[in-house]
Amino acid sequence: MKGVLLSGGTGSRLRPITHTGPKQLVPVANKPVLKYAVEDFKEAGITEIGVVLGHKGRDEIQELLGDGSEYGVDITYIVQGEPLGLAHAAGCARDFVGDDDFVMYLGDNILKSGITDLVESFESGEYGAGIALQEVDDPQAFGIADIDESGNVTQLVEKPDDPPTNLALIGMYVFSPAVFDAIDELEPSWRGELEITDAIQSLLEDGYEIDSQIVTGWWKDTGKPEDILEANRLVLEDKDLLTEGIIEEGAKTDGRIELAESAVVEDGAVVRGPVSIAENVIIKDGTYVGPYTSIGADSTLENIHIENSVVIGGSRLTASGRIVDSLLGRNANVESADELLPEGRRLVVGENSQLKL
Amino acid sequence: MRIITHTCPTCGTIVAANELEDNRVMKCPGLGCKEVVRFEDLPEEAREYFLEHKEQYQI
To answer: pTM of the entire structure?
Structure first.
C-alpha cells in the first residue's frame, strides 16, 4: 500500500494567509496541517508517499517534508501543475503507484481517528476502492454515498437535491490500480476538472465493489480561517500537551499547557489551557492567553488578552485589547496606539484581510 | 482523459505534461535535483497527443 498526499490548490478561501504560502502549511496546534497527514500514513503502516504539488508553495512543502526521512517515510514528489481535479492528481501518480493499492489523502484535511480503519477495511475484501464517509447535517452541500447493509457503496451523487443518505465523502480514499483505467476514460466535468467521484462511479458501473468506512471522530477540512480555528480547538482538546518551558513565580497557569522548552510565561501573566506555545515565545506581564489558543514561535505578548485564536508566529502582540476567534499570519503585529496622536487605529492591511473592529 | 507524465531519471520526481509544456526546458523540480527535464523527453506520440488536446490540460 502506498500513499498519495494532495498538496496543491490555491488556498483562495484562506487569503491573506495563503498569499505567502500554501494552505497545507498553516499550523494547527503549532504543527503544519500537512504533517498530520504524514503521521496518519505512517501510523497506518504506509511509508512510501507521493506528494502531489500544484503551482503554489512547492518549495515550502519540499523544505518541510524533505525526502521524508525525518518522519520515517520515503517521499516522491509529483508535480501536477494545473489544478485539473482530484482524479487528474491521482492519475499523475500512476507511475509512482505502479501495481499497488494506494490511499489518497487531501493534505488540508485533519481527522481524529487517522486512516488505519479505512485501510484495514479495504484490505479485508476485494474492493476496487474504499471511501471514508461522515454523517453531515447538510447533505445537499456534499458528495453523498448510498450504501447497502454490508457497507458497500451502491451510488454516489454530487450535492443532491434529494439526498439518499446523510453520508458525505470526506476526502480520504483507498484505490486499487483499477482506478487508473477508470480515470483514463473520464472526460472533464463542467468545471474543467477530472472528478474523483466520477472515477469511483465508473468503478461501480464496471462491477467493482466499493468499500465504505464511516468516520465517527471529528474531521475538518481546513480550507477557511474558521476551520483552522475549529481544527485547532479539536486538536488541543485531544492532544497530550507537554510543559517544558519556564513558568515564572507569580505567573498563573491553569489547565493543559504545551510550552516549548525555550518559551517563558513571565511573572504577572495568566495562561489558561488548553493552549500550545511554541519555541522562543515570551508571555509577559499583563497578558492573558485563554483556552484553545496556539502561539507560534518567536512571538512576544504583553498586556493583551487572547483566546480561541491561532498566531502563526513571529508576532508582537502588545495592545491592551481583547483578541478572540482570530487567525494572525506570520510576523503580523498588533501594538498599542494609546500614546499616538491623532487618536485612532493604524492599520497596514494586506489584500483579502478581514478585520472586525 | 489521458494523463501524460515524465519521471526524472535521476530523482524519480514525476512531472505532468502540462508543466513540461509550460516550461519546455526546466530544472527538475525534485528536491536538490540538478537534472534538466524537457517537454521533448516525452515520447513523440505523447507530445503530439498533448498538443492536439491541449485545451483539456488547461483550466
So the answer is: 0.93
